[in-house]
Amino acid sequence: DDMDVDTIWMDGEFVDWDDAQIHVLSHGLHYGTGVFEGARCYDTEEGPAIFRWEEHLDRLFASTKPYDMEIPFSREELSEATLELIRRQNLESCYIRPIAFFGYHALGVSPGECPTDVAIAAWPWGTYLGEEALENGIDVMVSSWRKHASSQIPTNAKTTGLYVNSLLAGEEARRNGYREAIVLNKEGNVAEGPGENIFLVRDGEIFTPGLSESILDGITRNTVITLAEERGYEVHDNVSISRGELNTADELFFTGSAAEVTPIKRVDNVTIGNGSRGPVTEELQQAFFDLVERRTDDHDDWFTYV
Ligand code: PMP
């Protein structure tokens, strides 16, 4: 591997990276029946610290609910395994990927007796959309693919199968020369990115699609709403945003554990605001990085120190 890591935690044991294998007839491979998380551990003055790990664990367990999937490990076991994985590999900052999926038993769509297999990996992962993107913003395209409606598949559960839609939208955008996509929901309103939530700034107020817009309840979304409110902004987080509002926004940005806070400078080649990172985006991005890298002692309860 080229990720400078050698260990994966799998079904209760630490195994060599190359040995972390599953059967080709695993249910999750055939039907997309896995639930997963993506969290970041930041290199802080007090050592590595996982940002909002408890909320990621909450969401992991919540994602199993619609699938009646039982993770055969406790929260504490998963947490201890993750911390140990980071320590063993001497990682300072890293991305953390826990996954639970229906494994190998029989190949009916009904998972029946399939075991729930669980694995956790952690590896160094730089900026998701590029360092330059954080500063100057990215070009995005409104995808021709619509997001699954939450009446078709629970979009608030972070399920592996959902990401086929993310791939279609993201690759369509990249084939057309854009860095990322914006995906509309079935009603044609703005939902989110393939792996990001979206925010809009207009006249000094902040807007983000509500949870009923078929989005993932993003942990970074929640963080940015909190940071914005603490700084006195009016945040409208239970609204529908029409496609046209993207073009007339003063500022737009994506949030996500991987994408962090990434400005959007153009949508379908229409320049947003003055075509660079806007002042509100910059303030919240700065607040976000000050927080996660612990240049402030605010919200210490959001950190799990390794
Ligand atoms: N929406 C989707 C579809 C995602 O995959 C992600 C990344 N998990 C997000 C939003 C952002 O969520 P979070 O801030 O919790 O990473």
UniProtKB/TrEMBL annotation:
EC nos: 2.6.1.42
Functional pathway: Amino-acid biosynthesis; L-isoleucine biosynthesis; L-isoleucine from 2-oxobutanoate: step 4/4; Amino-acid biosynthesis; L-leucine biosynthesis; L-leucine from 3-methyl-2-oxobutanoate: step 4/4; Amino-acid biosynthesis; L-valine biosynthesis; L-valine from pyruvate: step 4/4
GO MF term set: branched-chain-amino-acid transaminase activity
Enzymatic reactions: L-leucine + 2-oxoglutarate = 4-methyl-2-oxopentanoate + L-glutamate; L-valine + 2-oxoglutarate = 3-methyl-2-oxobutanoate + L-glutamate; L-isoleucine + 2-oxoglutarate = (S)-3-methyl-2-oxopentanoate + L-glutamate
Keyword Transferase: yes
Keywords tagged on the record: Amino-acid biosynthesis, Aminotransferase, Branched-chain amino acid biosynthesis, Pyridoxal phosphate, Transferase
One GO BP annotation of this record: branched-chain amino acid biosynthetic process
Keyword hit for Transferase: yes
Enzyme class: transferase
InterPro entries in alphabetical order: Aminotrans_IV (IPR001544), Aminotransferase-like (IPR036038), B_amino_transI (IPR005785), BCAT-like_C (IPR043132), BCAT-like_N (IPR043131), BCAT_family (IPR033939), Class-IV_PLP-Dep_Aminotrnsfr (IPR050571)
Gene3D superfamilies: 3.30.470.10, D-amino Acid Aminotransferase, subunit A, domain 2
Pfam families assigned: Aminotran_4 (PF01063)
Cofactor(s) required for function per UniProt: pyridoxal 5'-phosphate
PANTHER family: AMINO-ACID AMINOTRANSFERASE, AMINODEOXYCHORISMATE LYASE
Family, as annotated: Belongs to the class-IV pyridoxal-phosphate-dependent aminotransferase family.
Role noted for this protein: Acts on leucine, isoleucine and valine.
Protein name stated in the entry: Branched-chain-amino-acid aminotransferase
Species name: Salinirubrum litoreum
Gene designation: ilvE
